What we know:
alpha+beta; 6-stranded mixed sheet
Amino acid sequence: MTQAACMxxxxxxxxxxxxxxxxxxxVGSAVWAPAAADRDYVLQGYPLRxxxxxxxxxxxxxxxxxxxxxxxxxxxxxxxxxxIAPVAEGGISADLAQxxxxxxxxxxxxxxxxxxxxxxxxxxxxxxxLLRAVSEGSFHLDPLRVLRAIRLAAEHNLVIEAQTRAAxxxxxxxxxxxxxxxxxxxxxxxxxxKNWAQVAHTLTELGxxxxxxxxxxxxxxxxxLRTYLANLRRAEGAxxxxxxxxxSLEQGVxxxxxxxxxxxxxxxxxxxxxxxxxxxxxxxxxxxxxLEAILKAAVELQRLSGADPEQTFRLLSRFGRGAxxxxxxxxxxxxxxxxxxLSPIPPGVMPSGDDLVQRVGRPPGPWIRQATEELAAALSAxxxxxxxxxLAAAVARYGQVTHGTGSAEQKxxxxxx
Length: 417
């Protein structure tokens, strides 16, 4: 059985279990987009019982998503999540009336999945390519729907209907009250899309960056941010230089952090603001580290009028992938070309600290770290090609010579000059 067929069978069994508990419906985007990664269900009864039954019968992991609203979430396979919530008081009609957009205010009764319940003409809006709010108060019920509207429009090539766009714009300041982890989740999903650039441009056009509960200086210069986004777009899909470290974040998450770094750079703000941004969005340690690395590398790059391979290697050594993304964002073709001229250092070629102490004839000290950085840059750039050449360069740079006065001084030549 193929993976898709196995997943389809699991969904079928899941819906049978839900229907056996009581009145149950499939709602949300999975009604009109069967391939959607998220499946939302509502049922009469407490979802905790459904989660326990599903976990035992289908061996699924689950947890309480929102204890106050009795929402539970199950993981179906690697990428599909299943959310189960109780039907709103007043039944399925009242439930659909509280949903965000007409295309998501449709429901399919389980297990037959017919007839389709569509009280707000969601099918018509889908056919016409419109994203329309269910009600004027939709964004006030949950301000996060502002970001969700922008994501859905980009994801499904929809146009936000005029009155909905006006209501969305009016509700933007309410985003400041939304917990940072919810904003982060929506942004990360949006930047995982193929059409992520449309999301970024829309956020900029609407002035949404300053409405996320951040300091007022979070207002990027629109022209500069557009340039940065265009630089990122041009680099999309291009092979990375071989010396760029492997990613520690998923592609969409990494891109979201890179875009946020572009916002900070276009705002002319400092790293303390970046730390505030990371705290506000409840970014993980790896996400926050990448954001700070990009910004630090950008500062260093802006100080260099031209980046040669050895300077670029040092940036990569200090800031990892942050150096690469800083060069892409700033459009530094010189640094990117220099990265492409660098090569990984073959095993056994780089001298160890003990090698340096023994050959140079100096006691251990801070010079070892500096020598290691310089030799690694020269080896990667191809100016040195063997361990013996590297050790000879270290002796020339760090070896001690005795002058007539008897004092010891370092020689003036540099192994990386």
